[in-house]
Amino acid sequence: MNRMKNNFHMLPDDFRAAGHKVIDWVADYHAHVEDFRVLSQVKPGEICDGLPDSPPQQGDSVTNILPDIERHVLPGITHWQSPNFYAYFPSNNSGPSILGDLVSSGLGVQGMLWATSPACTEVEMKMLDWLVQMLGLPEHFLNSSKHGGGVIQDSASSATLCALLAAREQATNGQTNEEGCRLPLVCYTSNQAHSHVEKDVKVAGLGRKNLRLIDVDQEFAMRPEALERQIVEDKAAGKIPFFVCATIGTTSSLAIDPIPEIAAICKRHGLWLHVDAAMAGTAALCPEFRWTHNGVELADSYAFNPHKWMYTNFDCTAFWVKDRHALINSLSVVPEYLRNQASEQGEVFDYRDWHVPLGRRFRALKLWFVIRHYGVEGLQHHVRQNVAWAQEFAAWVKADSRFELVAPHPLSLVCFRLKSGDAASEQLLKRANESGKIFISHTKLDGKYVLRFSIGQAKTERHHVEAAWKLISDLADRS
Ligand SMILES: *Cc1c(COP(=O)(O)O)cnc(C)c1O
C-alpha cells in the first residue's frame, strides 16, 4: 500500500534503513569471505535455474532480496576478495573504494561533458595528476601540462584501443576516419602480450594478420632486434608500420619489455609506442620498483589498472597520452544537442572525446577515497609486503627439489612447476583448487604447463601465503 501511495518509489526512510542493512551485509561478507570455498562449485545453468522464469508483477521490499543473494547468488561467486585468491591477477577492492563508488551511485551524474557536472571532470583530472606523481611518471602526462593528459577508462583493453585509434589517425592524417582504412597499416606487440591487443586490432578494423607478434627472449621480454627486423621487412614490402604495444608486466609471467630500446626503434621509424602496465603499474608506487618503468618517459601513451592491485573496485584503468590532441582528434564527434559555451571556448576537458562511450560515471570518487584513506605510504606498504611474500614463496619453491621456478619473479607473481612434468603440474593445480582452500591459475611458458601464484589480494597476509605453500607442497607428494 505504502508503495502505491508513493508512486512505487522507495521512501527516503526506507532507503536509509535498507541501505544500512546492505552495508552491514557487505561488511559481514568481507568479515567472513575467508570461510568460503574460493572457487565457485556450481555447474553451468545452475544459477539461472534457481531464479524465477518471469519477472514479478508486484514489487517487493529490497530487504527481501538479501536472503536471496545468499541463496541464489553466493553459490555462484568465486571469491575474488578472499585472502586465498592467488589466480590470474587480483581484482581487489577496499572499504574506501566501495564507499566512494556508493557516493558516485548516489550522485548519479553522467559526466560526458565538463558542463554536465564540472566536478566529475575536474576531480578526475586531479586524480590522474596525483597518480602521475605517485608513480613517478613523466610530467608531460599531466593534465596541467601543455599537451598531455590522463583519463579513466573502463579497462586496459579500451586504453590500448584508444591509443591504437589515435596512432592510426596520426599515421594517416585523419584520413582513416574520413575514408575508411585503405592503407596497409601494421602494428606490433610481443607474443606474450595480453590477448586484448589482438581484439583491439580486430575492433579497429585493421585485420588480425596485420598484427605482428614479436619473439621474446628467455625471460619472456620482447626482443628489440626482432622488432626492428620485422619493421624494416614490412617497410620494404610496402607496408606502413605505425603502432607498438609494449608491456611492463605480462599477464603470463610479469615479464618486462625493454622500453628504452623499443622506444628508440619507434622513434627511428616513426611509430606510436603504447605501454601496457595493467598489473605492474602499481609497483611504481615504490621508488625501489620504478626500474620496471625505465623508459616510460619515451612512450606516447601508458596505462595501468588501479582496479587490479590498488584497492580500487573494477572498473578503473588510468590512461595517459603525451599528446591529447592526437587522441581527441581521433574520437571527437560533436552533435548539435551537445554544443555548449564551455566546450566551444576550449577552456575545459570534455572526457567523452577521450574514449569510446559517450556517457561516463564519476569513477574518480573511488580513487579519491582510496588515495585519501591509505595515503601514498599505505599503498606502498602493501605493495612492499606483497612483493616480499612472493620472494619468500619463490625461495620455498626453489628449496624444494620437486619444483622449479620458470621465470624471473621480481614482483608479486611466481611462476613454477613440478619437475616431473605437465601432467603432474596440472594434477597439482586441480587438487589445490578442488580443496577449496586456495585458487591458483596456470599458463604456458615455452610450451610448458606452469602454475601461477599471484599475491595481491587486499586481505592476504603472510600466514595465508605460508599455508598456501604448505598445501601445495603436501599435495605435490600425491601428484
Ligand atoms: C589484466 C591485463 C589486461 C587486461 O585488463 P582489463 O582492464 O581487464 O582490460 C591487459 N594487459 C595486461 C598486461 C594485463 O595483465
Describe the structure.
Belongs to the group II decarboxylase family. This is Aromatic-L-amino-acid decarboxylase. The protein is α/β, with parallel strands linked by helices and 479 residues long. The chain has a domain of 253 residues: 3-Layer(aba) Sandwich (Aspartate Aminotransferase, domain 2), CATH 3.40.640.10. The protein is 42% helix and 12% strand. Helix 10 packs parallel to helix 11. The protein is globular. The mean pLDDT is 95. The structure holds pyridoxal-5'-phosphate. Pyridoxal-5'-phosphate binds next to helix 7.
Q: How would you briefly describe this protein structure?
A:
The chain has a domain at 109-361: Type I PLP-dependent aspartate aminotransferase-like (Major domain) (Aspartate Aminotransferase, domain 2), CATH 3.40.640.10. Helices cover 42% and strands 12% of the residues. It is built from 17 helices and eleven strands.
